[in-house]
Amino acid sequence: MEFGQAVLEDDRGRAYVTLHTLQAAPLDPIATSEASMLTHLVDDHSELVPLLLRLVHPHPDKGMVRALPVAMDRYGITLRLEHPRTHHDVRLPFKTPVTDINQAGPQIHALLTTARRLAHSGNLLA
């Protein structure tokens, strides 16, 4: 079997990437730490996930039963919004892509700061 291309699919559609393009792509600096960072967020800072929901537009409806961080890469965090019979993922982009793992913490803190500012401007999640 020979690998010829990869298929990337998200909410914007599907894209085909050749093996050459995939091999030439720079490694994501968060890739090797993603699982531990998401686990740390859920286990040690779960109170921050509802704060991040303030950045979701349109705001989640009252039928949502749970929100979980499910992915993180150089471009941002993905939250899964769970409803009784379905779920959907939302992307919270960082202001700039992370080029070094040491930038991940400050980028996450910037998202949280923005969410806190929304709380003080009267834009709370209903």
Mean pLDDT: 90
Order of helices and strands: EEHHHEEEH
What is the strand arrangement across the widest sheet? Answer: 3-4-5
Report, as a whole number of angstroms, the end-to-end distance: 52 Å
- How many runs of DSSP E, i.e. beta strands? 5
Protein name: DUF2470 domain-containing protein
InterPro entries: DUF2470, Haem_oxidase_HugZ-like_sf
Pfam families: DUF2470 (PF10615)
Domain DUF2470: 35-110
Features:
126 residues; alpha+beta; Split barrel-like; 3-stranded antiparallel sheet; two-stranded antiparallel sheet; 4 helices; 5 strands; 31% helix; 27% strand; globular; DUF2470 domain-containing protein
Describe the protein in words:
The structure is a single chain. The protein is of the alpha+beta class and 126 residues long. It has a single domain (28-120), classed as Split barrel-like. 31% of the residues lie in helices and 27% in strands. The strands form 2 sheets. A 3-stranded antiparallel sheet has the order 3-4-5. The longest helix is centred in the C-terminal third of the chain and has 17 residues, at 104-120. Residues 35-110 form the DUF2470 domain.
